[in-house]
Specification:
The protein is of the alpha/beta class. Helices cover 37% and strands 14% of the residues.
């Protein structure tokens, strides 16, 4: 079997506004400090390819690694925040809170397809990569990886904290690329990510 591919999924740092307050906020001072801390924590692993959600808070979380490693993050829309059925900030927040209590299979097929696109984007990465993304996108990837249909699957395993690395290890053996078994998951908020 070939060597493993490590995917470091980084939840963006603390945003300057909440999900109910702004559609695309950047990071606040705490979030910027979290991004710097993650860059320091991961610096010795690279330079690795960087992938980021197109949303500001994720791009700003990737920025310190871009500087340290002298490379630009590739923007990947597939790892963006989950689409919501409305642009109304309060209504989308209510929808998300309700959805997170349920299962992916309870949602319309468009959301199940979104979850599969998140996982597919990660599965196709052929080399160890750092990905700055969002809580629900991480949930989606872990849900596929573990075969757990709950929308809050990572919460059941370990809480993903803002600005901390979650590591996923993907097998490169082509016979093992069943999306439900591609990843083994480990989240260690505040600790250096390590292979399983």
């Amino acid at each position: 079997m070939a060597s493993s591919v490590l995917l470091y999924l980084i939840r963006h740092g603390r945003a300057s506004a909440g999900f109910a307050e702004a559609s695309d906020p950047g990071l606040d001072e705490v979030g910027q400090a979290q991004a710097e801390a993650v860059a320091q924590e991961l610096a010795s692993l690279g330079p690795l390819p960087l992938i980021t959600s197109p949303l500001r808070r994720a791009r700003e979380t990737a920025a310190p690694l871009e500087v340290r490693w002298g490379r630009k993050a590739r923007i990947e829309p597939a790892v963006a925040e989950i689409p919501t059925p409305t642009a109304d900030l309060q209504a989308r927040t209510t929808w998300l809170h309700q959805a997170l209590r349920g299962r992916w299979s309870d949602l319309p097929v468009d959301y199940q397809d979104w979850r599969e696109r998140v996982a597919a984007a990660l599965i196709t990465l052929g080399t160890s990569t750092v990905v700055t993304t969002h809580f629900v996108a991480i949930n989606a990837a872990v849900s596929v990886a573990t075969g757990d249909d709950r929308m809050d699957a990572p919460c059941r395993h370990a809480r993903a904290s803002a600005g901390h690395a979650n590591s996923l290890i993907a097998a490169e053996d082509s016979d093992d690329l069943n999306p439900s078994r591609v990843f083994n998951y480990r989240c260690r908020a505040g600790a250096r990510p390590a292979p399983l």
